[in-house]
Amino acid sequence: MKLDEISDNPGARKKRMRIGRGIGSGKGKTGGRGGKGQTARSGVRIKGFEGGQMPLHRRLPKRGFNNIFRLEFSEVNLDRLQEAVDAKKLDAGKVVDAAALVEAGVLRRSLDGVRLLGRGELTAKLNIEVHGATKSAIEAVEKAGGSVKILAPKKDEGEAA
Description:
The chain contains four helices and six strands. It is an alpha/beta fold.
């Protein structure tokens, strides 16, 4: 096999449909928009129109908001940590932090930090550094002879320290 003989599988690349290019193309005349009128035009749409009556989405009150400062934590349970220790992916002798969990494949990414939850049993003695933990998780780790250190959530670069 040579480099100039390499090609994609048949049908792997599909050309986009060019609409509005004549009746013979299969997407000509109305260009997939159906008949005439408001729905065939760009910009205007019926959406929540109720014949002049105040639409339902405007009759109901607005509620809630999105907090732009909210932190998203990755969650990890005790049983997942124990599985990783049993599979020799996590070293019980070292400090278990976000980077170690990602490296071991327990988490895909640490987001704004890691939160430890209390599901499952933990028998390994672990020194854990996380950004949050439930009371039951802390008790279980300490019962197994380990320790939990709660870190402050990491600040964004834009915030003043």
